[in-house]
Each structure stands twice: as structure tokens, then as C-alpha cells.
Amino acid sequence: METVQKETKFAPAERLDEAAIYRQSRLILDQELLSELYEAVMNAVVIVNEYRQIVYCNQHFALLTGSDNPVEIYGMRIGEAVGCVHSDEEEGGCGTAEACAVCGAANAILDGQQGRLRVREASIRKQDGSQDINIELKASPLQQNGESFVILAINDINDRFRRQALERIFFHDLMNTASGLKMLSEQIADNCGDATIAPFRDRLQNGVSYLMEEIREQRSLLAAETEALELSPKPCRSIRLLEDLAGFYRNFEMAEEKEIVIEEDSENIAFKTDPALVFRVIGNMVKNALEASGPGQRVAMACSRAEDGLLFSVHNPAYMPRKVQLQIFHRSFTTKAAGRGLGTYSMKLLTEHYLMGRIWFSSTRKNGTCFRLWLPFAPDACR
């Protein structure tokens, strides 16, 4: 077995010669069951030796590189196989350029060699100027006949990157449009005293305000699902938060002929949290309560101290059937139109994964439905 010595600015540059690569690839391919399993999975699978050279890849990875023959790729490194712009900057090839120090693919392999099971993302710019390759890699160490290898399970996440870029553009443009409508509605309110159009003016303002909050909520949900949501903890008071919620939702059509109240025994508690997220969680409780209530019925909000934290609740007199209760926090479950089932799901996601709290509910024919949100007092409760 011979290795070729080269200079490097990051990972070791040594390589095995062609004969050694062939021997190692046969070592993998002779394990017939393993190779059949690797071809059966939906991921691209690559096995590299201790010099980061490919000794096996399945058809999914070959297609990612533009090849229809995996054997042609054996002996290359990941960046060389996919045509990375940095793969020939140094004589040692992929992994030896300065930019390789921040490459997710190179670092995933080094993780695997050291026994660390981590998932990394890599955005690879191609030499031919075609579309970048965005992949997610998970590396696992493998011992075969006393030799060390790393198995890489690779997901093509180009579609995710494109979707996220489009979502950012969409929300940015949509919010700009809504902000323009809000400014227009405010100008109408300031400059038009005609009592005959006052109801329409007020509805326009309320509708724009509701639209902007819905946009912010959907943007927060998408960020939360991808763990990209950043919190802004601030000191706030529980009664003020409930007053803001009541004032906001009283203006909307769903609240017509219904009453939104704050229970008299509620406590005005000072605490630290991200008020925008708490507003969205309790706001969803209020929306659901209003939609479930009929004319003349009351939606009651409350807050009190409980278990080294504070407890918010929103009650309405309607009863949820048991089959609805069993699915209430499931993503996309809804009793409304298709595609509108994210409210209760987002409540649980934001509460448990970001606000470090708990959320639950009870619903009986006698007492109606009550959603409860518990939040910790600790100043560092938000992650």
C-alpha cells in the first residue's frame, strides 16, 4: 500500500494508490447484503477510507455527481466527485485548501473518523458555474477487516434551500405590502371625518392589523420548525399582556357579539420572556376560543402564580368532541378548512421548544374548554 505525500492547509493530503483503492472497494462490495442495503435506501451513501477517498458509493450519490457509473468515482474525495471549486486549488486536492476548513463535508468526515456522530450541512460551489450543491451529511465510523472507514449518509437539500430563500422573499414582500396598506389606512383615518365611511375605515385598519400579525405568526412558525427562530426576552407584566391581547382581538369580526374579559382575580406578575411569542401562543388560544363560541358567549383570560412560574388560561364555554381532543396538537389537524391546522401545533412548538414552558387543555360538556400555558419565572428561561 502506497500513499502520496502533498502539502495541505487543512486536512491531511495523503492518498492511497489505485491498487489499494480497488482492494478496499472490493472489501465493501464483497459484503453483498450491505451493498444491497445501501442501494435500497433513499439517501445517497458514500464510504470513504482514512484518507477521505471514496471506496464505495451507491447510485443515488453517483447521480448527484452527474455520473451513471459509481466505479468511476472511486479514489476521489467528495469535493472532487461533485466538482467543488476549491477541490483543485491545492495540489493535495479536496480538503487541503484554506476554504476546506469551513466545509461541512470535510468536517463531517473528520467527525466520523473521531467517532463523533454529527449532522452537518455543506454548500458546495461548482467549478463549472452551475447551480450550487447543498447537502446534509451524517458520518458514522466503520471498521472492516481491521481497516477504518467512514459511512456518509447524504441528503440533497437543494429544494430546502430554494424553498427557504423563496419564503424569505415572500414574507419580506408580503410584509412590505401590508405595511403600505397600514400606512394608507392610517392616512384615511386621519383625514376623513365622514361618519358614513367610518365603519369601513375601521374595518380596513383592523383587517390590515390582523393580516400583519398573521404574517408574523407564519414567519415565526417556519423559523421555529427549522430551529432558526431567535428570541428577544424582555421584562413584561402579565396583565398588560392580556390587556393588549383583549384589545387586539376585540376589533375583529370573529369577536362580534362575543365578550373578551380578563378575570378579576388575575395577578399582575412581572416576568421575563419573549412577549411577541407569548402573544402568539395566547393569541391562538383566544382565536380558537372566539371561533368556538357563539353570540353572547364569553371568552375569559386569566393569569396567576403557579409552580415557580406563572399560569395563563383562556376559557370558552364550548366542548370539544373527544376525537378532536386526541389530535389537537398534531401538525395540520384542523376542524376548519384544509391547510389551517397550524394554530395549536404552533402553540405547543413555541411553548415547549422556545419558551421552555408547558401547554395543555381540558374540555368537558359541563365546564367547556380551557387552554393553559405555564411559563417559568427564570430570566434565562428562554433559550
Give an overview in words.
This protein has 383 residues and is α+β, with helices and mostly antiparallel strands. It has helices spanning 18-29, 32-40, 59-65, 78-82, 104-113, 158-191, 198-225, 238-249, 275-292, 322-325, 343-353, and strands at 3-4, 15-16, 44-49, 54-57, 119-124, 133-144, 147-156, 234-237, 259-262, 270-273, 298-306, 309-316, 358-364, 368-376. A 5-stranded antiparallel sheet has the order 4-3-7-6-5. Strands 9-11-12-14-13 form a 5-stranded mixed sheet. Strand 5 (119-124) and strand 6 (133-144) form a beta hairpin. Helix 9 packs antiparallel against helix 11. Mean pLDDT is 84; it is low at 337-341.
List keywords for this structure.
Beta-Lactamase, five-stranded antiparallel beta sheet, alpha+beta, Heat Shock Protein 90, 383 residues, 39% helix, 23% strand
Give the arrangement of secondary structure elements.
Elements: E1 3-4, E2 15-16, H1 18-29, H2 32-40, E3 44-49, E4 54-57, H3 59-65, H4 78-82, H5 104-113, E5 119-124, E6 133-144, E7 147-156, H6 158-191, H7 198-225, E8 234-237, H8 238-249, E9 259-262, E10 270-273, H9 275-292, E11 298-306, E12 309-316, H10 322-325, H11 343-353, E13 358-364, E14 368-376
Parallel strand pairs: 9-11
Antiparallel strand pairs: 1-2, 3-4, 3-7, 5-6, 6-7, 8-10, 11-12, 12-14, 13-14
Described by strand count, sense and barrel closure, the largest sheet is: 5 strands, antiparallel
- Beta-strand portion reads 15-25%
Uncertain segments are: 337-341
How many H/I helices?
11
Which geometry do the CA atoms define? elongated
How far apart are the termini? 51 Å
Q: Based on helices, strands and strand pairing, what is the structural class? A: alpha+beta
